[in-house]
Amino acid sequence: MKVAICDEEKDSCGQLRQLIRRQEPDCEVICYLSVREFLEARQHFDILLLDIQMEGMRGMEAARALRISGEDTVLIFVTAGKEYAAEAFEMSAFHYLLKPVQSEKFCSVFESACREVYRLERERGDRLFFRTKARNYTVQKKDILYVESAKRQVEIHTMGENITVYATMKHMEEQLGDDFYRCHRGYLVNFAYVAGYAVGMIRLRGGETVYLAREKYAEFVRKYTAYLRQKGAALV
What we know:
Layout: E1 2-6, H1 10-23, E2 28-32, H2 35-41, E3 47-50, H3 59-68, E4 74-79, H4 85-90, E5 95-98, H5 103-124, E6 127-131, E7 136-140, E8 144-150, E9 153-158, E10 162-166, H6 169-176, E11 180-184, E12 187-190, E13 194-198, E14 201-204, E15 209-211, H7 217-235
Parallel strand pairs: 1-2, 1-3, 3-4, 4-5
Antiparallel strand pairs: 6-7, 8-9, 8-12, 9-10, 11-12, 13-14, 14-15
Helix pairs in contact: 2-3
């Protein structure tokens, strides 16, 4: 899951990052100290923690830009004043937290926000949306051969092109579901494209191969066999 914090106060950013990491250690958290910096990054985030009262461009401008672009980012305002609450909820804000943020309250709101992210992902069904600096991508799950880890990014291999985006393998695993298998810490493979396998490797239709961790071989065989049975039953 990708989370952005947009707040010009470094201490506030640090506190929120610490609370998120404590609750969801695998979250990717990126801090921006201005609205302009956040907008120029042109990245897709699952959750945005946004201050309103910032110098220069106000946080509300970032929220408005998100909604105009069609982003369904879960938006949580974290600010010092109550007076912007009505305007915030016009931007379809998920919640409005007042500074100083109380840890217990934040954890409750963030947990609810994570559930909302997963609900939105289920609604999107078989489509995945990604934004890079160059362009936006909508990828059908059925078109993905495999996903490969690349440090803080992942490379999505499809029949048509390879797409590199900021995401974690855990997040991709959660998004892609049971038709994909984490065959190695660096690879997530689509069962639909498996052409053959042996200890240490999986061969895909099209000729590419990916690593199969030795300790995962037995589990892979079991799950792939169950996948084939399920698909076979669906065709009867």
